[in-house]
Design brief:
With 503 residues, the chain is an alpha/beta fold. Strand 19 and strand 20 form a beta hairpin. Helix 7 runs parallel beside helix 9. It is globular and about 65 Å long. Bound molecules: calcium ion.
Amino acid sequence: MSVRKLLGLYACSFLLMSTLALEVSFPQLHAAEKRPNVLFIISDDLNTSLGCYGHPQVTSPNIDRIAERGVLFDRAYCQYPLCGPSRNSMLCGLYPNSTGIHRNSQIFRQTIPSHQSLSHAFRMQGYFAARIGKLYHYNVPKSVGTNGHDDPGSWELELNPAGCDRLLEEPDIFSLKKNSFGGTLSWYASPRGDKLHTDGMLATDAEWVLERCARDKERPFFLALGFFRPHTPYVAPKPYFKGYAVKEMPLVEGVEENVKDLPPDALGSHKKEHDLLNDDLRQQAIQAYFASISFMDAQVGRVLDKLEELGLAENTIVVFTSDHGYHLGEHGLWQKMSLFEESTRVPLIIAGPGVKETGKVAKTPVGLIDLYPTLANLCDVPTPENLQGQDLTPILNDTTKEGRGWAVSQVLRGGRKAQRFGYTIRTPRWRYTEWNNGQDGRELYDHTKDPLEQNNLAKNAHLGEIVTDLSRKLNEAIVGSFPESGEIPPIRQGVWAPNLTDP
Ligand SMILES: [Ca+2]
């Protein structure tokens, strides 16, 4: 037999075996045209200051469009009010006690390296999975233009544009703390147009990826798009500032009176430089935060338009969310890392195939942890057995369904030697919080009378039974937030953990 014939036979049998392997590994590939795509949009540090969430001033016509054709979750909560821990939890479908990630600049491959992330599970079923911008943790703005603390195994394509906000304008940005932009309040009304900004470039890249996805009719896609705004620095093109007159920006009144009944850890996210704020600076900061939201919303609109133009909208599930909420002066706090409603509550909207109750609002508390099992179910993607969230599909079909009926969030206080957790549970009526197992204080708020959480009822004798009941519920949820071993997985150095060095 000639070498050529031998090679030919080998090639034939290899092809045959490859085809068989494909049949075995990807049994659903042939049904690809029926499987829905996923467009997963996440904004950074965005609270519910959106038109569709009833905000009286912020305009967000494009995110509102998603809500009109989907289900809006009115009580959706992050599991940890900080970028890295929240995103690892959401994308792993595990509580932070099970990912082992409670701080930024870490990735779950350091703690649970063999776990399949959300998009990894889609990849295993033949989906094309792409990331544009911030999905896992990124230092903003330092890591913009890099992979940040990304997990390469989650994606087939990663795009990291950097715009004028990162490359040109930093010397012009006003900041409460000199030369610090991402960690503190900082803002700038840019003279440059949308498409020169990082988030504008993200939308342009998303258009490009969608055009290529549209050509491949056989292969569904999971496109994850992580916008950076309204994370600090609040940089947006000037025209977006015009809709928000500085003097009309809302100031929080009566803070001193309000915080008297709070345990110190409840206010542990306060930063020293926030004491430099006066009312004028507060209003300027809020104006820039709102402008950044409207700018980001316009970029979301460009991507939605492209989805429609390409005829992809009908078979694409669109998710819009954020990694945690944000304070704008409530309880004297700014930014994130508290367990109050403003810091834990996130926008969450799911639209597209499989969502029956279009334009409806679901009131039952849910968590970002629920996204993984929900999207996997909607797309018939098998998941790891240890996921800890619930499938929201029944609520997408009937928004009066209660599901689990509560959501839990946690946060770390103290330095590495004195670290202790605070945990909070949100039910339809109550928020109940325990600091360091209750040893460092408790909080109880009745949302039917006190939506701004200004009256801590934890010490009211006549609510003793409520406190006992919620404490039991919270502590059961905490036990359930750990892996089967009961131990938080340690951070391991030297395991596969690429891209962990900041530029
Ligand atoms: Ca964030």
